[in-house]
Design brief:
Length: about 190
């Protein structure tokens, strides 16, 4: 007997593996320095908040920004020596970039390989993009076990997917490190020991 289409619920419409997902947990941040999330624990100075507000009032926020972000792309290329012929993917944070790469390169039977423990969005995006997820354990000191990781990539059907995700993972780690160091340099209240 067919169910009334108007009375269908999520279990009738959503794939089983999506229904099985758990919500991404974000721990309360009150009183914490959360540099891993690229958040500054301190409010901006009052004068800077006012200046930012005045500047934001002049921007066309009623329009979508240019997704190619040409000025940002130019600055990134200049700062990091990225040649003009190299592709540059600019996104709205690492979540979006991981999603774009996973969906663009997903093929039947392909896998997404990521270090574990790691960013939860790798596994989530693998499930949503219908990729097999392969977690490769980090060393005891949380460094990347490069030979094991490369072996895991080469064992899969589509190494390009894993290779691109590895590059995104390394970029994510390096950007987080850069931001952490920058916070320490800009704000004397933050100290690394």
């Amino acid at each position: 007997m067919k169910r009334d289409p108007v009375r269908r619920g999520p279990a009738d419409l959503v794939r089983e593996e999506i229904l099985a997902l758990k919500a991404y947990h974000v721990a309360p941040a009150a009183g914490m320095v959360k540099l891993d999330a690229m958040e500054n624990p301190y409010r901006l100075p009052e004068a800077l908040r006012g200046e930012l507000g005045r500047h934001a009032a002049t921007l066309p926020i009623n329009r979508y920004p240019d997704p190619t972000a040409p000025e940002l792309a130019r600055r990134l290329r200049d700062t990091f020596g990225i040649p003009a012929e190299a592709g540059l993917l600019i996104g709205n944070g690492s979540d979006e970039i991981i999603q774009i790469v996973a969906h663009a390169l997903a093929r039947p039977g392909a896998a997404l390989v990521a270090p574990e423990p790691s960013f939860a969005m790798y596994k989530l995006n693998a499930v949503v993009a219908r990729l097999r997820y392969v977690g490769v354990p980090l060393n005891r000191d949380f460094t990347l076990d490069s030979p094991r990781f490369l072996d895991a990539i080469q064992e899969r059907d589509y190494p390009v997917v894993q290779g691109c995700v590895l590059l995104v993972a390394l970029a994510f780690v390096l950007i987080n490190l850069f931001v952490d160091v920058l916070y320490g340099w800009l704000d004397p209240r933050i100290r690394f020991e």
